Amino acid sequence: ETGVTQSPTHLIKTRGQQVTLRCSSQSGHNTVSWYQQALGQGPQFIFQYYREEENGRGNFPPRFSGLQFPNYSSELNVNALELDDSALYLCASTPQQGAPDTQYFGPGTRLTVL
Amino acid sequence: GQQLNQSPQSMFIQEGEDVSMNCTSSSIFNTWLWYKQDPGEGPVLLIALYKAGELTSNGRLTAQFGITRKDSFLNISASIPSDVGIYFCAGQKGASGSRLTFGEGTQLTVNP
């Protein structure tokens, strides 16, 4: 149990729709990162939020956006869904400037785009 | 996006055997990490390596940070059925808390 929770657990959407995924960080963690994990692949970094501001972004298009709230919980929004967006979406929280061994992953949200 | 080259892709071993997997990169990382992921779960950190040449153990697991800072390996000794899962290496280039770059994973199956 990492203290990082994500909702929903599973989600099915159709191409062109929009989706919002949610992450609740471990208590005291003010930095959250989002990763996309396609089937059979390792996680790919999407972006990171620190104190409600985007703090680094991977190679993902602008239709992937995020928010971080004052309580450090976070959302990942994906617009105009494509079939290739089907994946496990993971969030990870860490204290500011925390060492990697203080970064904890949530269980993920499995998104299926039909 | 960039991923680390992790091998082997899968392994089928008998309980009690030792296992070795490795990860290489064309670029330098300041930190190397090894994770295990079970079905329906997020990755769980096994070992973190912070210094080139460092050899670190966690129970039956041993990992090393390559001297060139471009590679790492993980050994599991005396495997048991609960070692089944997907093992990922990950590298971190920047300051603590910065993005992780993951390998493609090694699927480990342990036959009792």
Query: Which residues of chain B form runs of ≥5 with pLDDT under 50?
Result: none
How many distinct beta strands of chain B?
11
Helix and strand run of chain A: EEEEEEEEEEE
State the helix count of chain B: 0
Query: How much helical structure, as a percent, in the residues of chain A?
Result: under 10%
- Report the largest inter-chain contact: A-B, 32 and 28 residues
Mean pLDDT level of chain B: 93
Q: What portion of residues of chain B is helical?
A: under 10%
User: Which descriptor suits the 3D outline of chain B?
Assistant: globular
Distance between the termini of chain B: 37 Å
Quaternary status of these chains? heterodimer
Beta-strand level of the residues of chain B, as a percent range?
over 45%
Low-confidence stretches of chain A: none
Tell me the β content of chain A.
Answer: over 45%
Largest sheet, strands/sense/barrel of chain B: 6 strands, mixed
The string of secondary-structure elements of chain B, in order, is: EEEEEEEEEEE
Compute the number of strand runs of chain A.
Answer: 11
Mean pLDDT of chain A comes to 91
Q: Could you say which structural class the secondary elements and strand pairing of chain A correspond to? A: mainly beta
Describe this structure in words.
- The complex is a heterodimer of chains A (114) and B (112).
- Helices cover 0% and strands 50% of the residues of chain A.
- With 114 residues, chain A is mainly beta.
- In chain A, the strands form two sheets. In chain A, strands 2, 4, 5, 6, 9, 10 and 11 form a seven-stranded mixed β-sheet that branches. Chain A has a four-stranded antiparallel β-sheet with strand order 1-3-8-7, with no helix packed on it.
- Chain A starts with a strand and ends with a strand.
- With 112 residues, chain B is mainly β.
- Chain B has no helices and eleven strands.
- Chain B has strands at 5-7, 10-14, 19-24, 31-37, 44-49, 55-58, 61-65, 71-76, 85-92, 100-102, 106-111.
- In chain B, the strands form two sheets. In chain B, strands 2, 4, 5, 9, 10 and 11 form a six-stranded mixed β-sheet that branches.
- Chain B is globular.
- The N and C termini of chain B lie far apart (37 Å).
- The relative contact order of chain B is 0.34.
- The interface between A and B is medium-sized, with 32 and 28 residues.
